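Quick one before lunch.
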Amino acid sequence: MLKITFMNESKIESLVSDVKESVNLQFPARIADLCDLVRIPGIAWDAFDAADLERSAQAIKALLDDLEIFDKVDIRRASAGEKDGAPAVVARREAKNGRPHILLYAHHDVQPPGPEDQWNTPAFEPTLRDGRIFARGAADDKAGIVAHLTALRVLKEIAGPDFDLGISLFFEGEEEAGSPSFRNFLDENRELLAADAIVVADSANWTVEVPALTTTLRGVVSQLIEVKTLDHALHSGMYGGVVPDATMALIKLLASLHDAEGSVAVPGLVQTEAAELDYTEAALRVDAGLLDSTSTIGTGSLLSRMWTKPSITVIGIDTKNVAVASNTLLPSASAVISMRIAPGDEPEKAVVALREHLVANLPFGAQLTFGEVEMGKPFASNTDGWAFKLAKDALSDAFGVESVEIGIGGSIPFIADLTEVFPSAQILVTGVEEPDSRAHSPNESVHLETLRNAMSAEALMLLRANAAVVPSE
Ligand SMILES: [Zn+2]
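Model of the zinc ion complex:
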């Protein structure tokens, strides 16, 4: 357990202005670095040229070598089943004089560009417009890499090249393809990556002006089910009205998953409340494209419903297709039920709760079988830790606006691996994106002032960690 003694107020104020000046002076050069990286279309799917990912890793390694602060800089791969994973760029410099060690994570692979005709300017040609740089990867997540490297340059410049803070870098090359070799990579490089705190720069801020730490992620449980009522199909005119068909039994069963208001009706799932931030139903309606006549579902604040309460969606149903519909009572029907589970819940418990609910609500004595299950853990960051306080203060000081805590309704699956392999490390989820970044979609962009502030915030955090006295317990 680490404890940190914080700097006094006047020292902090002059540090903030020194950091901002250093970031401002080098900002054009760092944006040039970002543009160079963005021009390399490294995509980790088999359908794309693996040589681009290799070039991307080499270009990043060159930027790290250029920093001249690491004991070691390397490009490494781990196995992903039959084949090798994508190249990751790693580096390490040991901590001195009892200072903490911080691991900085981002990924250098990008999403495929998507339909070319939906881009206003070419996907891999960075274009400056309206205070933003538009390109695939300009935000997700090459700006995350450049923010880390800028923060390290500022640390070196202000604290001197002999600084005490321990640093590891891990720039993954296959995040967008589901991180197939991630767990093996952590296991094989445990010593290189081990840290007291991990900064995952792959998320978003609340707005372009208001910085955020992402403190919760929902987990996921999906369950394939099959319902049977007959041992063979029947003519619906002959037996309809007395024999239940499997489609009807399945629909009644699936309907039991929500109550009349649309809240999840499965008992035993964890629910918590999200931080109170301003998010109106009008904004949600625009963001989600909700039709005028359609109401929202569930109860409680909108953000709690999106971030910290469970949700259930039936994501696939197999019965007879409309195109081949015939007057038949079907003997069996199946569906995939996908649950988002709240931070603090456990997938293993949630799947048991779901199954018990399904068994208890099965109509007409139908037969129910459970098929394939997929599970991903939710995440809740340790908001009492020293690293969390450092990050929150640094964000507020750099942006000049109090930082907020946000959630994500979806998952970042590799975070569960980080918590398993490094159980004592505090995990901070930061990022350079904001609601208009459009990661994964055409016309992705990074907002330059948000990026500039995010760079300053991370530099401040590293400088304070470097200056902090960290007696071990
Ligand atoms: Zn990303």
